[in-house]
């Protein structure tokens, strides 16, 4: 779709302060009450139609005693998407749908569901049902013959409305329906949403980027495969999914491409055709340690006297450390008048002490310092050499 933004009905123009990202997000820097306050409307349009959503942005100084300011909830505070809406019954003047509840309720209990419907005769795009649904089923009416209808569902909690479900399959009133298939889908819906279908038995790290899952199928009558959900436990990001077909009696899978030395949560959702079942229990596993993928950063050199320099630095970022920091490895090189280097010393310091005193330095000699971090697995890359030289005339440190 094409994403367009409007402020009080006028198109938002990109500038040095305002820009729209590739995914359609509007970003405004250095907010100005005189120019940025107002009603914002986002319009997503395609050949199939358009959909809009509006919200009012009010700007007030944080010192205003008449306003109760609060931090916007994190994405994880909202409910996850409900299951894909399933068409469970169609009559001449109504369509009945049902869906599985959201897997994650967020920071508070789910208090209802919001439904939107799109049809090929609606010029306004997606139309919200004007009230909240407390159950996981709904009958939409009236409907018109030879018109295709599609539904999405969102869950709501005290923090707000979560992301939408997948779109239902379009259903057209007046078209022949395969009632035999509908019966199978209804039975599958009942089987997969009641009781335990699959138990996740094990989640064990295979190496620094993969985890092997083992599960047991309790009732496989209506199981074509599984959606495997994985998420970094310490991240606010969304779940990633992998589809595994049940053909051949699959009961294990290795999840690759994970971050190193990172704890993940896993669970399975069985499916049959378009029907998703009750999620399995969840298990966590932490990928194994590896060598750091980046060097220490922000090295500083402080001249103490005419022959000594104090060095300090910071460890690699947590994302690139890939394990528990064990040691730092420092290589000091000296350069002669022909710019030929020679290793003067190769030392190791404890990972809790990112500092080093270099003594007995000679004025006029050029030195280089490279530092690497290590975990229990091994040593990571060395930093780009930092050049040090004590000027024999000024007695100052050149870097």
Automatic annotation (TrEMBL):
Pfam families: fn3 (PF00041), I-set (PF07679). One of its GO terms (biological process) is cell differentiation. PROSITE patterns: FN3, IG_LIKE. SUPFAM superfamilies: Fibronectin type III (SSF49265), Immunoglobulin (SSF48726). The keyword Repeat applies. The keyword Plastid does not apply. Coiled coil: none annotated. Residues 1-52 form the Ig-like domain. Keywords: Repeat. It comes from the Eukaryota. This is Protein sax-3. It comes from Culex pipiens (House mosquito). The lineage of its organism: Eukaryota, Metazoa, Ecdysozoa, Arthropoda, Hexapoda.
């Amino acid at each position: 779709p094409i994403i367009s933004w409007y402020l009080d009905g006028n198109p938002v123009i990109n500038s040095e302060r305002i820009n729209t990202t590739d995914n359609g997000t509007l970003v405004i820097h250095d907010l100005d009450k005189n120019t940025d306050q107002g009603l914002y409307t986002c319009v997503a349009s395609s050949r199939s139609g358009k959909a809009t959503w509006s919200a009012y942005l009010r700007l007030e100084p944080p010192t205003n005693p008449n306003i109760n300011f609060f931090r916007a909830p994190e994405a994880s505070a909202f409910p996850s998407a409900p299951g894909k809406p399933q068409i469970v019954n169609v009559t001449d003047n109504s369509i009945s749908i049902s869906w599985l509840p959201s897997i994650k309720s967020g920071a508070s209990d789910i208090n209802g569901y919001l439904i939107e419907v799109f049809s090929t005769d609606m010029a306004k795009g997606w139309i919200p049902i004007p009230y909240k649904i407390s159950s996981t089923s709904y009958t939409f009416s009236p409907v018109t013959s030879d018109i295709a209808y599609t539904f999405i569902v969102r869950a709501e909690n005290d923090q707000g409305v979560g992301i939408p479900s997948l779109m239902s399959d379009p259903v057209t009133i007046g078209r022949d329906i395969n009632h035999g298939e509908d019966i199978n889908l209804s039975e599958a819906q009942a089987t997969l949403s009641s009781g335990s279908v699959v138990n996740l038995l094990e989640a064990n790290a295979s190496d620094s980027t993969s985890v092997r899952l083992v599960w047991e199928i309790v009732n496989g009558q209506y199981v074509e495969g599984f959606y495997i959900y994985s998420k970094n436990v310490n991240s606010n990001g969304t779940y990633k999914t992998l589809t595994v077909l049940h053909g051949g009696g699959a009961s294990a899978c290795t999840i690759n491409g994970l971050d190193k030395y990172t704890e993940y949560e896993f669970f399975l959702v069985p499916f049959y055709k378009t029907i998703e079942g009750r999620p399995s229990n969840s298990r966590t596993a932490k990928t194994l340690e590896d060598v750091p993928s980046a060097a220490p950063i922000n090295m500083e050199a402080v001249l103490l006297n005419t022959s000594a320099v104090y060095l300090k630095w910071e460890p690699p970022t947590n994302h690139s450390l890939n394990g528990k920091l064990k040691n730092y490895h420092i290589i000091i090189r000296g350069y002669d008048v022909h710019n030929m280097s020679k290793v003067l010393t190769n030392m190791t310091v404890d990972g809790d002490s990112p500092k080093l005193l270099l003594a007995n330095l000679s004025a006029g000699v050029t030195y280089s310092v490279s530092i690497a971090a290590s975990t229990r697995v091994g040593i990571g890359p060395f930093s780009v050499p930092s050049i040090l030289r004590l000027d024999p005339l000024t007695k100052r440190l050149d870097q």
